[in-house]
Amino acid sequence: MVSDVHGNAKALARAGEGADALVCLGDLVLFLDYADHSRGIFPDLFGAENASRLVELRTARRFEEARELGRRLWAGVDRRPAIERAVRRQYAELFAAFPAPTYATYGNVDMPDLWPEYAGPGTTVLDGERIEIGGRVFGFVGGGLRTPMRTPYEISDEEYAAKVEAVGEVDVLCTHIPPDLPELLYDTVARRFERGSRALLDAIRRTRPRYALFGHVHQPLVRRMRVGATECVNVGHFAGSGRPWALEW
After folding, report:
1. Average per-residue pLDDT in the chain?
2. DSSP letter at 18?
3. Which partner for 11 in 56, 76, 100, 242 could form a disulfide, CB atoms 3.0-4.6 Å apart?
4. What share of the chain is helix, strand, coil (3-state, %, to 5)?
């Protein structure tokens, strides 16, 4: 089980060793590495100094200033084609690293429209869907909710809730973002709360899956906690650790 791969193709190629299947909870793309400002699409285009300034503004929650910096840098650059070319290069490498079988859903920085071009026959992409793996029913809900960050795959609360509802009762509920619990949402390094889903929390309380697994928060205050009968687990920041989280029944 991995989440928040953010360009770590080398470790991804080893992530399924010894496992019956690999499950990926999204965020394959590396747009900007908050730990190493020289890595990612943004510094490749505009340099590490501008990347450091953007990280500083976002961390301070000065989002309008961050957007103004972005507007100045992108002036005269055809933004979407430039980003898409870079994302395609990353996807070609990352999807090639997936073992078979892999079950994957999208993160908030992913571009879902491109995935069908790169997902091979051993990779099953699921979003608002369920599937049986090893005799257990897994449900998948991809993407994130809308934030001032305006990452590529943010959707409305209503659309997200509809996908959660479509999954229904499962043994393992797999999402990119956590349920809406403060302990699971606070990033101790970025010093901010990420957005979690109230609909997801309500579904966990109502349907009582054995596990609710997610990523998104890279350095959470709490990595796991129980909600009734459900063990809620942040499976980790794979880009940083290079280590998958093993689900053993």
Report:
1. 96
2. T
3. 242
4. 35, 20, 45
pLDDT score of 220: 97
Phi, psi for residue 22 in degrees, rounded to 5? -110, 135
CA-based end-to-end distance of the chain: 13
Q: How confident is the model at residue 61 (pLDDT cuts 50, 70, 90)?
A: confident
DSSP codes joined into one string, 75-141: TTS-HHHHHHHHHHHHHHHHHHH--SSEEE---TT--GGGHHHH--TTEEE-SSEEEEETTEEEEEE
Class of domain 9-29+99-241: alpha beta
What mean pLDDT do residues 9-23 have?
A: 96
Ordered by start, the domain boundaries in the chain are: 9-29+99-241
DSSP 176: S
Half-sphere exposure of residue 39: CA atoms within 13 angstroms, side-chain side = 12
Residue type for 225, please?
Answer: M
For 195-198, the CB contacts below 8 A with 24+ separation are 195/144, 195/145, 195/146, 195/147, 196/145, 197/145, 197/157, 197/160, 197/161, 197/164, 198/157
pLDDT at 79: 87
Distance of alpha carbon 46 from alpha carbon 62, whole angstroms: 20
Which of the residue ranges 36-40, 59-63, 160-164, 176-180 would you say has the lowest mean pLDDT?
59-63
Q: How far is CA 96 from CA 93, 102, 197, in A?
A: 5, 11, 31
